[in-house]
Specification:
Radius of gyration: 40 Å
Structural class: alpha+beta
Shape: elongated
Number of helices: 26
Strand content: 5-15%
């Protein structure tokens, strides 16, 4: 009995001991799990403040390239912080994704942001060996590092990377993650994303690359610089073949394809050498974009800007302008060398001084000009008129029908000066302003055959308080030819006739027309000197003004941007044609007919003499003291303006006229531009009439008038009285209504009969 009781007690103790042992073992077994869970909670709470917020995850906006396209739809210029072109997931080739997954993350579609087996293994290896942590990241973890974290290799960064990767997987779909990854990865040479890299290395967009080419890009993910195909072709080839093997091993390509692909050489696109043409043009677009849309839009939003630039003619214009301005500078250097006696001062031959002019002139300024500081410029030893003034150049080319700016030269060297003289410099246009004066007259009933007296005049100076002070303007050549037609006065660029014409038709009227022509930036005063271009105007304004003539009296606002498209293909801005009526069509035609004479027998006669036979018109301009040289001319298709002068401003010296300095640039560029274009005439609009006018009486020529001129008139202003043949009675008229035929016919009758002629 006792034995049974003892046995039961022992069994009970044994059972209790076993239960405690089980509990103990259970405690021992679950303790690590509890510790790990606690560690995870502690670690999570520790790193949580350093992780990107959900709002950051939901608003991932990578910086994209802004492409500027030329008129042919080709990329001409780029603005970017990171060269990246976003490609949607649907547009990414499947083989590109396979190449990446085969080498970087084959389990991408099966994990939830991290590979739980790979990371601990990498950590233990790093702890035990003391080496840097090896890569074992999923694509999501790599994306995390690209977007939010630093590239350092440490356990803490790995933990944050894993935690953020999990949150990304909770926020985005697998397809969205792949889209981000394929557009975010850095592939060297400033390229971010597979699209930008594919275009850079192979010259083609991502969807047209072959599997071996995609393998090259995927191979660069590990070490972008080391595996660049353009700099390290051997290493790139070996790495590509490794990627191809991985694709075969993952079942993405067959063994036969693998063997074929590894034997394929890497062929890269030839890089076009950057010529730097049109930099002033692109700078104007940059300033416009920043002002209207902000800096972020220009450098990060990936917009596409379709511009009006003609890349070929822009490059040609840049080249021609550079050559011409160097010729001008050389002439100015010789002039300064002689007038400042630099050869004697520095005991050098004249040619050597010019060859090393910049250095010699720097010495001259230090040795002589530094002490020549008399406050009265007229009393200085070296007046400004004999100093060297560095010449610059500007040019604008506008397509008449559209207003599109096809080329812009803002200076000779973008790197040394970003001041755009084509659109920023307000300069006096000189005689190139005269067509606006004569256009005012034509639009108010004048005819090219109307006459004006080229003679000295004395005009009260409206700008001076002294009522006795007068202004006696002179012609460029300091000569006077008496009575002449408005046509002749324009093509010979006579100053007195321009002033008298402006005064006759109203200087305030000229101001109003100038505003309609687009001369708006500077104030315009209704004073006699206005007729000689004593105003401030930009080359852009003046060139745009001249488009009125070939456009039949209308001015189309010049523009540089056809459209702006965002990264999703939505048009956010499109150019709308803006047209202003300036002159009546008949008046514009009369001006075209007069300005054609400038290019045939006037101050720009070398246009016709050069063999440029496209119908064209234009006007030269030279300001006082040869400070500014202009030529603005047009054909039916294009209008181009050229300016050469000193930024100072200062005199370039005698002989630096619009004819000598500016016209050669226009002639070279327009000849190149029109070599394959048809010779288009200027059509005569309704409202223009032609009359044969008797040279003696100024009336419509009758049957007894052997000497007559064919003159153009606008409707309602042509003479109607017919000459009765009485050419012997001298008819004297006042200067206000004088015509070429008032007295000149009688005076010239003694020289013998003249042939019938036509005014061109």
């Amino acid at each position: 009995m006792v034995k049974n009781i003892i046995f039961k007690i022992l069994n009970a103790l044994k059972s209790a001991f076993l239960k405690k042992k089980v509990i103990l073992w259970l405690l021992i077994l679950f303790l690590p799990v509890l510790l790990v869970a606690a560690a995870v909670v502690v670690t999570y709470n520790h790193f949580l403040p350093e992780l990107p917020s959900l709002s950051q995850l939901e608003q991932i906006n990578p910086k994209l390239v802004t492409n500027i396209y030329d008129m042919n739809g080709k990329i001409a210029h780029e603005y970017y912080v990171e060269r990246r072109e976003w490609v949607s997931f649907d547009s990414i080739p499947e083989n590109a994704i396979r190449a990446v997954m085969a080498t970087e993350d084959r389990e991408f579609y099966n994990h939830w942001g991290m590979n739980v087996w790979a990371i601990p293994s990498a950590i233990m290896e790093s702890v035990s060996s003391g080496k840097k942590l090896r890569g074992a990241s999923t694509l999501t973890q790599q994306l995390t590092k690209l977007l939010f974290l630093t590239p350092e290799r440490s356990i803490s960064r790995k933990i944050k990377e894993a935690m953020t990767a999990i949150r990304i997987e909770q926020t985005y779909t697998k397809q969205e993650i792949l889209e981000f990854y394929m557009n975010e990865v850095y592939l060297s040479a400033g390229n971010y994303g597979f699209q930008a890299a594919g275009k850079y290395y192979f010259g083609r967009p991502l969807d047209s690359l072959t599997i071996p080419e995609l393998a090259v890009l995927a191979g660069m993910l590990q070490r972008p610089e080391a595996y660049r195909p353009d700099r390290h072709p051997k290493a790139s080839l070996e790495r590509r073949n490794t990627v191809l093997f991985a694709m075969m091993d993952a079942g993405y390509i067959s063994k036969e394809d693998y063997r074929k692909y590894v034997d394929t050489p890497i062929t890269l696109a030839e890089k076009e050498e950057e010529k730097g043409a049109g930099l002033y043009f692109y700078e104007e677009i940059r300033k416009y974009m920043e002002k209207k849309y902000g800096e972020n839009s220009l450098y990060a939003d990936g917009v596409s800007i379709y511009s009006t630039i003609d890349p070929d003619i822009q490059a040609y214009a840049d080249s021609v302008a550079q050559v011409q301005v160097e010729k001008v500078r050389r002439r100015i250097k010789y002039r300064a060398t002689r007038r400042l006696f630099l050869a004697n001062k520095y005991d050098m031959p004249e040619d050597s001084v010019v060859a090393h002019f910049d250095s010699i002139y720097t010495l001259f300024k230090k040795d002589y000009l530094a002490n020549d500081t008399n406050p009265d410029p007229k009393k200085r030893r070296f007046p400004d008129s004999i100093l060297y003034h560095h010449a610059e150049v500007a040019a604008i080319l506008i397509e008449n029908e559209t207003g599109a700016i096809r080329a812009m030269v803002g200076g000779s060297d973008w790197n040394s000066s970003r001041w755009n003289r084509a659109v920023q410099s307000l300069r006096q246009p000189g005689s190139s302003f005269k067509p606006i004066v004569y256009a005012t007259a034509m639009d108010n009933g004048a005819s090219p055959c109307d006459s004006v007296n080229d003679q000295p005049v004395t005009i009260p100076d409206p700008d001076d308080k002294d009522k006795n002070k007068v202004w006696r303007p002179a012609n460029f050549g300091h000569d006077f030819e008496g009575m002449m037609t408005l046509r002749k006065a324009l093509y010979k660029s006579k100053n007195l006739p321009a002033i008298l014409t402006g005064m006759k038709y109203g200087l305030s009227n000229v101001v109003n027309y100038a505003r309609k022509f687009g001369i708006v930036r500077a104030p315009l005063l209704a004073v006699p000197s206005l007729a000689l271009g004593s105003v401030g105007a930009t080359l852009m304004e003046m060139t745009s003004a001249y488009t009125v003539f070939p456009n039949g009296g209308n001015r189309i606002e010049p523009y540089m941007i056809e459209s702006i498209v965002d990264k999703n293909g939505e048009t956010i801005e499109k150019n709308m044609k803006v047209e202003h009526e300036v002159l009546r069509a008949p008046s514009a035609y009369l001006m075209v007919d007069m300005l054609k004479d400038v290019n045939v027998r006037g101050t720009a006669a070398r246009v016709w003499a050069s063999g440029f036979t496209h119908p064209s018109g234009g006007k030269t301009g030279t300001t006082n003291d040869y400070t500014d040289a202009w030529y603005i001319g047009f054909t039916k298709q294009y209008t181009m303006g050229v300016w050469i002068g000193s930024d100072s401003p200062g005199t370039m010296g005698a002989g630096h006229t619009g004819t000598e300095d500016a016209l050669p640039v226009w002639l070279a560029v327009m000849t190149e531009l029109h070599k394959d274009l048809p010779r288009l005439p200027f059509p005569v609009p309704a409202g223009v009439s032609s009359r044969g006018i008797c040279n003696y009486t100024g009336k419509v020529a009758g049957e007894f008038c052997s000497e007559k001129t064919y003159c153009l008139y606008t409707a309602g202003y042509a003479p109607t009285e017919v000459c009765d043949g009485n050419h012997f009675e001298v008819k004297t008229k006042s200067a206000d209504d004088a015509t070429l035929f008032s007295n000149k016919g009688a005076a010239e009758s003694s020289t013998g009969p003249k042939k019938t002629r036509k005014m061109f």
